Prior knowledge:
By secondary structure, the chain is an alpha+beta fold. The chain has five domains: 2-168, 3-Layer(aba) Sandwich (Rossmann fold); 179-255, Elongation Factor Tu (Ef-tu), domain 3, CATH 2.40.30; 267-346, Elongation Factor Tu (Ef-tu), domain 3, CATH 2.40.30; 359-457, Arc Repressor Mutant, subunit A (Orthogonal Bundle); 478-600, Orthogonal Bundle (Arc Repressor Mutant, subunit A). 33% of the residues lie in helices and 28% in strands. The chain has 19 helices and 33 strands. The strands form eight sheets. A six-stranded mixed beta sheet has the order 2-3-1-4-5-6, sandwiched between helices. A six-stranded antiparallel β-barrel has the order 7-9-15-12-11-16. Helix 12 crosses helix 13 (451-458) and helix 18 crosses helix 19 (565-577).
Amino acid sequence: MRVVATAGHVDHGKSSLVLALTGTDPDRFPEEKARGLTIDLGFAFTTLPSGAEIGFVDVPGHVRFIKNMLAGVGAVDVALLVVDASECWKPQSEEHLRILELLDVRHGMVALTKADLVDDETLELAALEVDDHLTGSSLEGAPVIVCDSLSGRGIEDVRTTLDRVLNEAPAVADVGRPRLWIDRVFTVRGAGTVVTGTLIGGMLSVDDEVIAGRHRSRVRGIESAGEQVTTVSPGARVALNLAGIEHRDLTRGDAVVRPSQWVTPRVVDVAITQLPGEQMRRRGRFQVYVGSGEHKAWLRVLDDDGQLARVRLDEPVPLAPGDRFVVRDSGRKCTVAGAEVLDVEPAARARDAVHRLRLPLGARVLSSHLWLPIIDVPQLTGTSADAAAEIINALVAAGDAVRLDHWVISSAHLELLRSTTRERVQDHHDARPHEGGIELGTVANELRITTDQLRAALADAEDLVVERGRVRSQSHGGGVADSPDAERLIAALEAEPFSPPAPADVGVDQGVVRALVREGTLVDVDHVVFTATALDQARHVVIDAFRERGRLTVADIRDLLGSTRKYVLPIAKWLDREGITRRRGDDRVPGPRSGLSELL
């Protein structure tokens, strides 16, 4: 299925045309029927001559209901612009066309309606005027079909032309990241909450876990074009029956997405397209229209040319680069600009953003993230997993980036980390020549990265060696850890990493133990000696458990490590001290250095 939105001035016959094409009156409310005026969105379905199914979103044409019009066109890419042959081009014809252009709607047609009310010469002049207004717009060259909804004149031509337009339009993209902008919310007796909208970005299936607005939910049922289905593809009009959520918790403008697939920012950096003749303020409050929603926002132009801006929304919205929205001046009640999202996690300082926003997409995202998790690239670029992999491959092939474990890091930043580490290591060797190196965690703290990140950054550094939780120069000796007594003690401790024997039981004197502690090979926690490697392993085990459970007791940690309370209490204390965990009553929860900021 494809979805087509109507557009055009009030009383130019949009709803009558949809009724003639589908047999369904899209005006749903008694007030609309009584006044003959579309107030809110209407919906109808039909099958075109080719057999293709099509859904219409009929929008109001009156300027008072412009926000409802914007809610209807925010997720479509094909438009049916309706112009009354007897009145021809009017103010809302122009504004609706500009809105379609700002949303990058490049496919559509024009229906020149009420043809029976005028003579042939007037029809010809009206068609010429429409062509003149379309020139230079995103719909330039769109077919213009003369029709009359009451007599049926030209209705079949409208059908066949729509068929051709839809066949020529590119298929709706499936990037594996579905998003449905909600345009209606209601309840159905015996079913519960139902939302409707136009699905884009990916498929949805019954029993999928989703985020609706800010609430977790599950897709209980799906309806499209009046039929119950188990799976629905992008591009279709969809009704979703959602489980575990009340209808009052949702509103028009909310989105339904899969968990962990979208960034939901309040601040985005955008490219601005100002409408001809409009002079947008360089900063101030505006109304922005994203998907089916209306949002208050603060907008600040970033560059001298007025082409880049930072937008601060009052509410978080699931967005990705490439998304478009419309900017209106609420004071003057007019559309002033459109915006294309460039960065959903912008630099903290606005003045740092301008250079980055002019970079290609991959370089732009990389420049905003010193350590870019590979798993996050699709949502940060707004692409499929395959396209995100191609972006990364291109950056690496160009020498601009390097893969390090599950991160991508710029080549320049990697070299900076390594050179800074070399300097810090050499300073340590000069000050303490008898030690085997500096503790990895100490250097990581100074660089404001995690130990895992530093270990990954140094993995291929030929002149640096990482061993036993420390880093040293390749040319520097290993220190006391290379002595026979030290090797015997380390082997004994590593044999039972979480229940280590006392050094005295291994026959090693305290002088060797103290030297190994100074080097960082061993760690003394409340007179229990562990290897630094064992504690690092414990850290990994606990962090992995947090990802599944969110919080742990001492008994949980004991069971995870296969140890006893005698040894687990010192380990838990060390984890607290290192910021990996923090106490909350009798439990442990992720600490600030756990790398699990989403669970804090």
